[in-house]
Each structure stands twice: as structure tokens, then as C-alpha cells.
Amino acid sequence: MTTVADPMAVPVYEALCVTGEERNCGAESGTLHTPDELTHWVAGHCAQTGHQHYEQTVRAILRAEPGAWQ
User: Global pTM?
Assistant: First the structure.
């Protein structure tokens, strides 16, 4: 079996601000639909706060393809 990205599903992007010493800022972008939207959110948050460290998550739908495990 293998897995492949489902070409009919659109990936989604999220960012979490992890800037901080004692604890992370924790600001979240929410679900966004393009890398440009994610970059725009990060740029805006950075401009407002000066925060520079973010965790990015990209979620996509996978489809299992039948076959022998290799």
C-alpha cells in the first residue's frame, strides 16, 4: 500500500507564534487556504509584535492506494 495526496482536496495552512522565553505567544492564524495568506498573517503579526518564530502546519487529504507494502 502507498499513500498519495488526493488531487481533489485543497491543502490548508496554519501558523502558531512560538516566540517567547517563559512561554510561547500562542497567537494562531486559523485555517488559511494558500501559502500567501499564511505569509500575510505572519507578516502582520510580526509587524504588530516583533515576533519572529512560528510553527507552520500544512494539512492535506491522503488517499490509500492498494498494493503490497514495500
Answer: 0.80
